[in-house]
Amino acid sequence: MPADRTSDFDATAPETFDSPHSLYAGLRKNRPLAWSASWGGFWALVRYADVKRAAADFKTFITSVQNVVPKVAFTGRRPPLHLDPPEHTPYRRALNPLLSGERVAALEPVIRRITIELLTPLIERGWGDICTDFSSHLPVRVFAEWMNLAPDKALELARKGREFNLAVQDQNDELVKQISLHLYDMARTLIADRRANPRDPLQDPTSALLAARHNGQPLPDEMIIATIRQVLVVGIIAPTIVIGSIAVHLCRHPDLQQRLRTEPALIPVALEELLRLYTPYRGFARTVAQPVECHGQTLQPRQPIALVYASANRDETKFERPDEFDLSRPNLHEHLAFGHGPHHCPGAELARLQLRVALEELLARTRELRLVGPIKPTRCPEIGALSVPVTFLR
Q1: Which CATH number fits domain 19-393: 1.10.630.10, 3.40.50.720, 2.30.40.10, 3.30.70.560?
Q2: Angle between helices 237-252 and 254-262 (to 10 degrees)
Q3: pLDDT at res. 159
């Protein structure tokens, strides 16, 4: 811990669904560069301008040492998230065409079919857990389609993806390592299959990475394996949580439920405001690469620092009445829910499509959603709902 600072907050303290936002509001006002002794100690940036600036400055704040707080990557570096530019660029370049607006839009019928298949039995039953019974399944099945996984591998990913999420939430480091190594094995199997049975690189992420060239050379095998390992779960956890958090908000605001039912054209705009309010990741971590002054403190090399997007998105100096939902907010598209800079989420459009379709179908097929039990919140590095028991009124 820095010799001249006491801990400003305990990142391991028990939380409710809402309590982190009160904590961050206090830090934004009094400790914009906050120090926590949790997990070996780390700095935290909590104001919008500071977070956005640091996310863009990849030379001063690097991601190749530690990408989240607490650290959950124990089995090696995985592109592109764990690499800095320019090293990360060829991996992003290979995957970006498969996450383009046109490619993502083509998945809408599949996403809608999966959504309806998952929601129908819950709505007919009249109750269920939005997270456990719906949102934990949707992104896995969508991702399996995007990855062109065989049905047995899709089921395996669904099982291991949920196990990985729970292990991270329980901060069970040994189990996280075990599941991560299993996911590496899945990646190797997938790569071997694509080498034996090539697919169109413009339609298949694994084939795109195998076909990619950097300075005329193929990407290293071990890094392709690591990239596929990263891709297998990176798009699973966040949608699970944000759909749960959105359900909480809608249950608390039945008037908004009804307005979006009668005016579904408002759903895309509403989602941007909901993403601002319920950013599923507290923030990603960086490591200081060179001395830098920040709020009167000299940050030294090798010190970890969290960029708290969940706090930045409720910064009162950026967003007026930041804790309120406002469809007419003039700058609602300036939120940082998908990050900023070279590590801005490449799957943002796929995530938006899943959220839109899920909300459209959920509202169209019900008359009202009601919260009927306690909300179970996530733990770091995510923020939001892990369990949301509801009744579905038709």
Answers
A1: 1.10.630.10
A2: 100
A3: 86
